[in-house]
Amino acid sequence: MSEIKHIVYLMLENRSFDNLLGWLYDEENPPKVNIPAQSPPTYDGLKENTYFNLDAKGHKFYVTKGTDHNLNVPAHDPFEEFEHMNNQLFGSETTPLAPEAPTMGGYYQDFAQYDSHLKQIMQTYTPQELPVINGLARHFAVSDRYFASVPSQTNCNRAFAACGNSLGVNDDNQLEAWVNNRDFSLKLPNLSQPEGRQFNQKTLWNVLEDNGKDWMQYYSHGNWLEDHLGTEGYSYTRELMMELQDKSFDSHFDGIDTFFEKAKAGTLPSVSFLEPEWGLQKLVLGVDVGINGSDYHPPTNLKSGEAFVKKVYEALTSNAESWANTLFIINFDENGGTFDHVPPPWNATPPWASDGTPEPKTTEKEFKFDRFGVRVPLILVSPQVPQSCVFRAEGDTPYDHTSVIATILTMMDIPKDKWGLGGRTANAPTFENILTGNGVRTDVPTVEVNALGKTSKDIVAPANDIQARLAQRLLSTAITKKGLNDEAVNKLALKPLTEAKTSAHLSSMLSRALDKVAKS
Q: Is beta strand 362-363 parallel, antiparallel or unpaired with respect to 175-177?
């Protein structure tokens, strides 16, 4: 077992493996080592003129290498709900049955529900365009066989990353296994925060607490407006996981600035979980606002995400003594509708198969939890991992989010009979072997943010319901403070904003309406 004393875990948002790391290695420049060993070492990335999707008329659209340094590709947020991912993977929104093979051919047509930038769904970044995430993957270790736990969106995958399942009580007071996101607050100052019934099972952090291990979760802040609205400045994970909401856990949650202070001082706890500044909420007033998260979530500019990952890495490496015994884990919750060419396998273990997790009365969309989500990046950064390493699980079962849970608990020397986090976690392949027997590297590779990175300006994104609700809330609050009546609220706020055709149009309308209210 390696001598790791500090594990720092950063989960980012909504990018597939191919989208970010597809061109990391090629046949002329392969990785130096595979674990398990292969000779010569291989990497399952992209090849030009190989992978394609068809449009509705049968025309081929191949995967494109590079985005011309546009760091907000795709310029629309792809569809990520369960039904859309079925369409992207199988060509139909209907829930497939085993052993139907995913074709990975439906991304283009699913994305074609937008009316511009359609080819961007097949565009992928080069290492030169995203040198931080690619640089860390090349200097340290990356898995090209790591999958999201659920073929759906953020919250259920983050629930799997927390407790190995996505179970919660439904409106009929029955235990249900969820695939799509649930309730969000529409009220200030908790706008867009998870609320109500979410996920109710024991988490990784409860197991750490019960076994006397020190842990923290650090969340990011936004600008003054975002913190005022409640879209930033709180622990998203805590709001999702009901078993973390007791006040006795208050001391385990703090802002990201405290993390940076402790990283530089070498005083981090055994396990730290980091939340970036959220990106999707940053576009709720349209792209004209210029607010950008650091979570890599499309369609935000990835420069902020790259800078955040670099800042975390440099804080950890600034204390040489502490860094020698640190593991920095970077992964992504799900692919967010971005293309990957590797079909997710069907051999996922249902979470309730054993080890303490109850079987639900029902499953959302009749999903059996017997297949994985789309392949996403998993990067291990530590002086105790080999340089230029590509690793995979032994056997037929690949890594997923439960592998991170199982690896952390194994490295914390917590016996498996004390986990109680379900069958998926209990049977998950682990990757602590990647850090075993390597010694401690003395090199500290540097990574730099792409100085050529830019944002595409010609975005014509349709306004969505979240954007409209936030705009209405902001304008209604301004009108109420002016003492205007309900008729004025409807005339100035609600009706006009529902007619906005695009995010930029909505932003412009809101600005004009707020100005009109101010002059009333």
A: parallel
